[in-house]
Design goal:
Length: about 300
């Protein structure tokens, strides 16, 4: 089996995991568990796992220095704690298709954050992409459709998802220097620990107060899916694939995730694809494609492509 095939297989599996989550989470929230309760289980499970793996694979590797330690704390707050609280709160209030489309704008946020924090130049195509993507996102957030009765607070949910994509895009820019300097599991163990410290105070009562005895087997499997597959396995596969995949290849999977999310949502009866959503998706996709274009003479950027992660 060639390494290129394994890279494709890993990225595709990660994309399927994230795409399916938009619909599977709807079975769990809010009937069986609250969004913050799910986040608590997820970050506690993942932080424990990555701390254990780090102990065995990189026991001597430590984040050192005031600047790197503060950067890792900010990454944990943005990329894990606040990110997950916003994502599941938003997904609870809006439709799977809307959530998956809004998540796609993370590369646009990365370009803006890189310009502000790293002084990277925003070219004319990228500026146009930011504008087109913003129009698509704004149209999706503000639209009211036939599902208003099902998701009466969809606008608020969409804003939560937009904020989630924004803080995650910021995380992708901030975490890059740490990933280059330290072992991946050293960074993951730290950011998930910080994320747990941020998220658990919001959800521990809800996690403890959940009536687990009422869970049918299907719900247990879906909760296990969110902890094991969505968090641990997806992060492991994604970090391995990022070492070998090109930005262009990863860009393909950025677009594939919402497409698969739509297929899952429609097949499972969780959502419906309308012409208006298709038009909004087109605007967002065009915007992401434009901002993903490498400026002439610039090295290929790896960070925007990491937006295949949730």
């Amino acid at each position: 089996m060639s390494n290129q095939f394994r890279v494709h297989a890993a990225l595709f599996f990660v994309t399927v995991i994230y795409a399916a989550n938009y619909s599977l989470s709807k079975d769990v929230m809010p009937q069986y568990m609250t969004p913050f309760g799910i986040v608590t289980l997820r970050v506690l499970g993942a932080s424990s796992f990555f701390a254990l793996i780090k102990y065995f694979v990189a026991p001597q590797d430590k984040i050192i220095g005031w600047a790197d330690n503060w950067r890792s704390i900010i990454c944990g707050v943005c990329g894990i704690g606040v990110n997950q609280l916003l994502f599941f709160s938003g997904l609870n209030l809006t439709s799977p298709i809307s959530a998956s489309l809004l998540q796609t704008i993370a590369p646009i946020v990365v370009v803006i954050a890189s310009a502000v924090l790293l002084s990277e130049k925003i070219t004319v195509p990228r500026a146009l992409g930011i504008a087109v993507g913003a129009v698509g996102a704004a149209s999706l957030i503000l639209s009211r459709n036939a599902q208003a009765a099902i998701y009466p607070h969809a606008t608020l949910g969409n804003l939560f998802i937009l904020a989630n994509a924004t803080v995650f895009g910021l995380y992708l820019v901030l975490v890059q220097p740490l990933m280059r300097k330290y072992h991946a599991f050293t960074v993951l163990a730290r950011v998930f620990l910080v994320g747990a410290i941020v998220a658990v105070p919001f959800g521990w009562r809800e996690a403890l107060g959940t009536n687990y005895a009422s869970f049918p087997l299907k719900i247990w499997l879906e909760v296990g899916y969110m902890v094991v597959f969505l968090t641990i396995l997806a992060y492991l596969l994604n970090n391995w694939a990022l070492k070998y995949a090109s930005a262009a290849l990863l860009g393909v999977y950025i677009y594939l995730q919402p497409v698969l999310a739509v297929l899952f949502a429609v097949a499972l009866g969780k959502d419906h694809l309308t012409w208006s959503k298709a038009g909004q998706a087109t605007l967002i996709f065009v915007g992401v494609w434009l901002v993903s274009q490498k400026p002439k003479g610039a090295p290929a950027a790896a960070v925007p492509a990491e937006a295949v992660m949730d």
